[in-house]
Amino acid sequence: MTIAAEEEMPGAKRGSSLIRSPQFSSLIILIVLLTVFAVADANFLSPLNISNMMAFLPELGIIALGMTLLLTAGEFDLSVGAVFGLAPVVVMLLVQNGEASIGVALLAGLILCVAIGAINGLIVTKIGISSFLVTLSMLLVVRGAALYITQGFPLKSWDQPGFFVTLLAGSFNIGSFRFYTSLWWFVGLSLLAIYILRYAKLGNWISAIGSNRNAAVARGVPADAVKIWLFILTSVLAGLAGMISAFRISAASPVAGTGYELEVIAMVVVGGTALTGGRGTILGTIVGALMLRAIRNGIVLIGVPGLAYNIFVGVIILAMLILHALLQKNAARG
Amino acid sequence: MAQEVLRLQNLQKSFGSVRALKNASFTLGEGEVVALLGDNGAGKSTLIKAISGVFPVDRGEIYVRGQKVSIRSTRDAMDLGIETIHQDTSLAPDLSIARNLFLGREPVNLKWLGVFAPLDLAKLRDAASALLKRVGISKKLDADALVSTLSGGERQSIAISRAMQFAAKVIILDEPTNNLGVEETHGVLRFVKEVRDAGHSVLLITHNIHHVFQVADRIIVMRRGEIVAEQTVADTDLLTVESIITGADMSALLREARAK
């Protein structure tokens, strides 16, 4: 039987779907950017510079993984930068006041992140306020809390060698490259996120919720619970990233992570995840995270004045988004 | 009438001071297409939402195959074999046809992993292709195609196929032909007949009386939260039904009913 008189065969499009996919176009742009930077300045691909980029990459990248899942479900979180700052500050205060050992303090810090994520998620889903407003308010609360409990002063971070320092900020050398253990965290969490979004039942639910929440709910998918857990996950990852960063630089600053929320969202959408939900790609996010890191690093290397470099970052992000929008339009037309 | 599948008895539902459903009772037989008609605000949506588990009724009973049931959630309704298909809320456009067909009932490996269990992608795809083939739309559609690439009529067909797939006893179609072109509408109506011939019961909610006369066996008309008429299609005509819906000529109808 025939329902529609469309002549187009959906199957015919599949061959080119990889090339048209947003993460693929992002990857091309990334390669072009890397080439340009490498040609413009030989130091760009030096072991020292690559090691540097790889040290920073996981800290924002880990948050971006959680943000990708959250965006795919149709919500986002502006409080991640503030949580990035607060979590290590709380850990260090607990340790310095002698109230807890480092292990217990780290656990307490993560539990605090769970609580922040849960509050975000509960308000968004149960009271029905947009995640923009809820997490913007949470940003202020969390950042304010970090500033108040430290009286605005950065704390000296835990720097005694031991299990937790190695776990979060240990480093190792491969040839003349120096890598931090945080890179393994990023790799492991990326693989886990790819698995969840593409192959697990939960990933199917996350995409369905972001694509058409009512449809998912009508099929018995617990949309609110999934969203609340994703808020918690994003918050915990932000806290973890903050702790990794604080251990690496041996300082916990109450203003650490300022502006990270937008940088992370930029990574995610540059990678091809839709801000409107339903379409998410972890591979794209990894490409996006690499791209933003490379841009920030490369632009300085090729001699763009420091004060001007946000202009370039903004322009490149805009160009990426325009490209995605055009590809999307093209795909819709078939 | 064929064997009873669904029976509603004295359903009542109020929202604050608004009595959306005053007293609704009717039965739906096996392999029967019943059209539920009524103007906006007549209580049609409230009635189907009560049956599909969106909210509980204040009073009244629902029986499925003679068994009294309580429907507290959409999941309850689905488990009882009641599937509701809304025009805009039935499919996720960014997911493939196969993933939509099994949304919420995904076949998985390693079930003990719960929500983290991996989808059985081969089974998902095969089952979806088999289903598309069985309902006769496999030539047009690939199970891996995204729903966003489909036309409105194709989406309706997918949604209805999904309801059939899970052996739904009762399929509720909420305005299935809204916003569809002429040809697509005919496709969907043909599909409704096939669903009935496969033994499913259909409750069809629509504004379009012409469609009703093409597919329905029986017509139920609601006004102001009450069922005001119940007739077999063979015993009535378009004008009569229209006047019942609008209430324009109720007295004449009542006289006619008494005369019978």
UniProtKB/TrEMBL annotation, chain B:
Which parts of the sequence belong to the ABC transporter domain? 6-249
Q: Does the keyword Lipid biosynthesis apply?
A: no
Tell me the keywords, alphabetical order.
ATP-binding, Nucleotide-binding
The terms under GO molecular function for this entry are: ATP binding; ATP hydrolysis activity
UniProt cross-references to SUPFAM superfamilies, sorted A to Z: P-loop containing nucleoside triphosphate hydrolases (SSF52540)
Answer whether the UniProt record assigns the keyword Protein biosynthesis to this protein.
no
Q: What is this protein called?
A: ABC transporter related protein
The organism's taxonomy opens as: Bacteria, Pseudomonadati, Pseudomonadota, Alphaproteobacteria, Hyphomicrobiales
